[in-house]
Design brief:
Layout lengths: L29 H49 L7 H39 L1 H64 L2 H92 L11 E4 L5 E4 H8 L4 H5 L2
Helix pairs in contact: 1-2, 3-4, 4-5
Length: 326
């Protein structure tokens, strides 16, 4: 068992910040320039947090490895527990379970740190990731459309060959039947010449039927091959749909992560505004009746709500001058 040897390598996409000055070298408007700087600052904060979390994760994994040094000999003994007497087995299990608690704790906290790392890496690279997902979905959709066109073509050809095969055999059988009927009628009426003609027609019809049967046999082979090709095309269509659905889900999960972060940012902005409003109400001697009902859920990693207590905390930092600076 080598769980503690979990690789800490991360396959990160390159982090590319926006070009603040633009591709032409011309300066952007002040608002756009400020927005670009804000985006870069957010990415810098995320990258700093990622580095911090990686250090924390590696520390936890190292600690887990140290715990495992003590656990490993006990695991080896427990693999052959049938060789141990009951008392010895009990003592080993007890010691193993005691040592396993801090080991599992370190692994769990390392996994949690890893999840937080991956979330922030997605946030940093979400534009590149989403662009890749969108392109992949478009490619799979194009493949599916091309395969559907191929399937329609195969289905049309298959139907044509099946119909032609049935018609050819029906005509050949009918010709043989007609010749036999004519022969029987000629015999019945004593028509010697008619009997000779009908006999010749019957022989010719029999040969044509044999030829048609051989042709029909070849057509059946073609039909079977076309049906098998349809099965293969259907499998490819199903694969294209599944791949599209898989990538679509990844894109949706990424969108959810980004939107959760944006929600939290907007909520923080609202809380700041609410804190200022709380302070203004305080300064005029009013009551924050409505604001005390505030409940805003925080999305993403944390399971909590922002409430009026968060407004009260923010309100304390606003002075009279701050409130009047609208």
């Amino acid at each position: 068992m080598n769980e503690f040897q979990t690789s800490t390598e991360q396959h990160e996409l390159p982090v590319t910040g926006p070009d603040i000055h633009g591709a032409t070298g011309l300066s952007l408007p002040a608002a756009a320039n400020g927005e670009a700087i804000a985006i870069c600052e957010k990415k810098r904060v995320l990258l700093d947090k990622i580095a911090e979390l990686k250090t924390h994760r590696d520390s936890l994994l190292g600690e887990a490895a140290q715990h495992y040094v003590q656990i490993a000999p006990l695991e080896a003994l427990l693999e052959n527990e049938e060789e141990l007497d009951a008392d010895r087995l009990y003592e080993i299990r007890k010691e193993y379970n005691t040592l396993k608690i801090p080991y599992d704790s370190c692994k769990t906290r390392a996994d949690y740190a890893e999840a937080r790392i991956q979330r922030r890496e997605k946030l940093v690279n979400h534009e590149t990731l989403m662009s890749g997902y969108t392109e992949s979905m478009a490619n799979w959709k194009a493949d599916e459309q091309e395969l559907n066109e191929k399937r329609d073509s195969l289905s049309t050809r298959l139907a044509q060959i099946q119909q032609q095969a049935e018609e050819d055999m029906a005509k050949a059988r009918q010709a043989e039947t007609d010749a036999a009927t004519a022969y029987a009628q000629a015999v019945a009426w004593g028509d010697t010449e008619g009997e000779k003609t009908a006999n010749a027609d019957a022989q010719k019809a029999a040969k044509n039927l044999a030829t048609a049967s051989e042709h029909h046999r070849r057509q059946l082979l073609i039909i079977a091959a076309l049906e098998q090709e349809l099965v293969i095309v259907d499998q490819h269509i199903d694969e294209a749909r599944k791949e599209h659905k898989t990538i679509e889900r990844r894109a949706l999960l990424l969108a959810r992560t980004v939107l959760e972060e944006q929600w939290n940012e907007k909520a923080q902005e609202l809380l700041e505004m609410g804190g200022k409003l709380w302070s203004a109400i305080d300064l005029v001697g009013g009551e924050q009746i409505s604001l005390r009902k505030l409940i805003i859920p925080e999305e993403g990693e944390n399971f909590r709500n922002w409430t009026s207590s968060d407004l009260w905390e923010r309100a304390s930092k606003y002075s009279l001058q701050d409130v009047l600076a609208l």
